[in-house]
From TrEMBL:
Organism of origin: Myotis myotis
Name the record gives this protein: Esterase OVCA2
Enzyme class: hydrolase
Functional note: Exhibits ester hydrolase activity with a strong preference for long-chain alkyl ester substrates and high selectivity against a variety of short, branched, and substituted esters. Is able to hydrolyze ester bonds within a wide range of p-nitrophenyl derivatives (C2-C14) in vitro, with a strong preference toward substrates of >8 carbons.
EC number: 3.1.1.1
Length: 109
């Protein structure tokens, strides 16, 4: 009998983070799960301005490390605030297409 395939776990990098940075931060977890689960990390589809004011075109970091976001909570600005209820979720459709290839699983009681 063939060995079961490892579980693939979708990991979404947070706002102003990147897939590369997220993978680095989860190195110990990936090691502990080796053979049982594969962490598949994704960056958000939208480039955002980092806290120092450098935009995606500034060249301050390599493209794979540029801060990214999944959607924006204001209509006219590329920002997200977790402290306020968003009036809009601008950019959510392209974000959804990135994760559509994964089958969601939910565990109930």
């Amino acid at each position: 009998m063939a060995a079961p395939r490892p579980l693939r776990v979708l990991c979404l990098a947070g706002f102003r983070q990147s897939e590369r940075g997220f993978r680095e931060k989860t190195g110990a977890l990936r090691k502990a799960l080796r053979g049982r689960a594969e962490l598949v990390c994704l960056s958000g589809p939208h480039p955002v301005v980092d806290t120092a004011g450098a935009g995606p075109e500034s060249g301050s970091c390599p493209p794979e490390e540029q801060p990214r976001g999944w959607w924006f909570s204001e209509q006219g600005a590329d920002v997200f605030s977790a402290l306020e209820e968003p009036a809009v979720c601008r950019g959510i459709r392209p974000a959804g297409s990135l994760v559509a290839a994964f089958t969601p699983c939910f565990w109930g009681h």
